[in-house]
Design goal:
This protein is mainly alpha-helical. It contains five helices and two strands; from the N terminus they run αβααβαα. 65% of the residues lie in helices and 3% in strands.
């Protein structure tokens, strides 16, 4: 299955992806501010950044401490979930386009984006994060990291979602009323 070296390469690729995301976000923040974008929720942002950086370090540390690869029954589903999480993340980023950032920057004069995965969920990008934080460590059997960072991420996302939903305002709240935050629901057909 996925050996230690392959797993460390996977972690490096995820770290590289995070670097690309930060560059895209910085460009979008500059553009949004130039268009009147308002930043909110700065208080939780350093904790969120530290959590994500610590997560990748913890994934590597646990894999190095326990280098034996996990059984395929753990690693294969985890890699599948990780791939789905990445696809969902980039679908959300593409749907938001120039409005996607890692910080909370709202454009008060613009209607909310309700296309792409936002047709189904209020926060599909955060669902991708939840899935990734569980799946990436489990791809190498690092269940301690998966559990610890899933718990920390739950706290961080609670703060983040509260700040973001407050910043997006009434138009956003009206557009997303009744739409689930993170877990899709099966639609019931009208009788």
């Amino acid at each position: 299955m996925i050996g230690l070296h392959a797993y460390l390469v996977l972690l490096a690729l995820v770290a590289l992806e995070r670097g690309v995301e930060l560059a895209v976000s910085a460009r979008n923040v500059r553009r949004l501010r130039a268009r009147g974008g308002v930043e909110a929720g700065r208080g939780h942002y350093p904790a969120m950044v530290a959590m994500h950086a610590g997560f990748l370090i913890a994934c590597a540390a646990e894999a190095l401490a326990y280098p034996a690869p996990p059984p395929p029954l753990v690693a294969l589903p985890a890699l599948g979930v990780l791939a789905l999480a990445q696809a969902l993340r980039w679908w959300a980023i593409a749907s938001l386009g120039a409005r996607w950032t890692t910080s909370v920057v709202a454009l008060p004069s613009q209607p909310p984006v309700t296309s792409g995965p936002y047709r189904f969920l209020r926060h599909p990008n955060y669902l991708a994060v939840v899935l990734e934080i569980a799946a990436l460590p489990l791809a190498h059997g690092s269940w301690r990291t998966a559990l610890a960072f899933s718990a920390v991420n739950g706290v961080v996302l609670t703060l983040r979602i509260r700040a973001e939903e407050g910043a997006l305002g009434q138009a956003w709240a009206a557009a997303f009323q009744g739409r689930p935050r993170l877990i899709p629901r099966r639609r019931r057909d009208a009788a």
